[in-house]
Amino acid sequence: MRESKTPRVLAAVFIGLLFGAYKHFQQVKVLAAGREAYLADQSLYFDKITKTHSTGFMLIAGVILAVVAVALYEGISLGFSKLIRPVEVEE
Known about the structure:
The chain is mainly α. 82% of the residues lie in helices and 0% in strands. The chain has three helices and no strands. The protein is elongated, with a radius of gyration of 20 Å.
């Protein structure tokens, strides 16, 4: 029996929708605050990353973020595969 690809596609679409909604509401919040608040926030962010930026820290954070993203994707895919059973075709 071959595994269906539908749950993996649905998991990718679901994560994309969640990320898109998050970015949209984040941008709406920034737009509501105005240009001056945005520029002040970006200035603070720049000051923060110039103090804490290091190659080792960024590599470790990138690996942790990748592991969390893959685990989330696989978990959602597993959930969809439990809901959607593969269609068995007789040959």
